[in-house]
Amino acid sequence: MPTAPKEPDVQYASRAVQHVKRVCAGRLADAAEILPLAKALGVFESTSPWSHVDAKGFVALLNDRLMALGLDPFLPDYATMKLETAMKKPAPEKPVCVVIVDDDVGCLLQTALVLVGWPGVDTVLYRYRAPDDSEESAEISKEDAIHETAERVAALKPDVVLMDEGLCGPFSGHDLVPAIRALTPNTRFVANTGGSPGELNRAGAAGNCNKGRSLRDVERAVLSCD
Predict the structure, then answer these.
(1) What are the residue ranges of helices labelled H in 2-141?
(2) How far is CA 137 from CA 117, 142, 173, in A?
(3) How many Cα atoms sit within 13 Å of 45 on the Cβ side?
(4) What is the pTM (predicted TM-score) of this model?
(5) What is the pLDDT along the chain (226 residues), one digit of tens a residue?
(6) Which of 82, 101, 116, 192 has its Cβ near the most Cβ atoms within 10 Å?
């Protein structure tokens, strides 16, 4: 589900409430059910967890209910976000494959959007999907799940990997970094998280692309490829 952007909580909640009122116009029973979720966004910091509940979780729940009713989801206003563009970035000496790893389609597209047009750079999206609750999936250990995902990413032959931290599964992005590096030793890693990149940085990922909002560390990684 789309991630809550960094903006004042009151403003974010207000936009969510207005969205629900608009899409639920004439459907008072549905509005009465969903409006409390939208209003609750103002209680939490947009990017910080509180008692294991955060704004992202409320956005996911809100959108789940909206889409179950056949209504449009509440999306961040990407049009107002100031994103860099890579079209005028210098080209690497040889073609470079950048793989974006994330579990959120919106974040994948948001990051890929700013990389479009970078000369000599091929962007590949890898969406991580958490195992289902079947008995067969339950038997897969965390280590096996990490190795299986690392193999799938490595099969894309990445020169640079932009890694999300908060993957919706039994492991986090920082667990994947050394597993992928073991299979592709020359791959460069850059954190790509809307939260703190600390764990990813300690695992060997440089800086933070911040879901496409900063290309400085990505540019360094791309141009350092042999």
Answers:
(1) 9-23, 28-40, 55-68, 105-115, 135-138
(2) 39, 11, 20
(3) 7
(4) 0.64
(5) 444 444 446 777 788 888 888 888 888 888 888 888 777 776 655 444 444 445 666 677 777 788 888 888 877 655 555 556 787 889 999 999 999 999 988 889 989 989 988 999 999 999 998 776 554 555 778 899 999 999 999 999 999 999 999 988 889 999 999 999 999 999 999 999 988 899 999 999 999 999 998 999 999 999 999 7
(6) 192
